[in-house]
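One such shown below:

_____
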Amino acid sequence: MTKDEYNEMVDIRDERIFRSWVNKMISYEDINIKELDNIIKSKGLTIEEGLIEIIRDKSERNYKNYNMGLYRNSLMHIGDIYNRMKDNKQPLIKYLQVCYYDIRGCMNGTKEFNKDLKFLALYIIKSIRKLIDELNINNDD
């Protein structure tokens, strides 16, 4: 196999990984693909930027409708998208917001919190630690 053929295979693999990730985001947030396509084309956005815009709108609706668990999930997904875009500060902010809602015990159907439901998701903690390392943040910061 030549180096060019190898590089082509790597590009194909990376494209498949990206498409799989986009499909997961679409599925997790129940996004209409045509709506995503329209937003991307009409505003000249990248796929990631289009996903953020739609998920942000959905999260605002969830917050207004007292679906705090869904709101929390949307914050996490937005953080994941920013993380994939290599924007280290935005995912850290979103993941810290998720922690706030997790330790308060958020739930759907009310803005009240249930202390019996409080937890910290391991995925979020690991993501925060990774970003802290990447940003070279220490305890004094």
Notes: Helices lie at 3-28, 33-43, 47-64, 68-84, 89-104, 122-134. Residues 3-134 form a domain with the Serine Threonine Protein Phosphatase 5, Tetratricopeptide repeat fold (CATH 1.25.40). The mean pLDDT is 93.
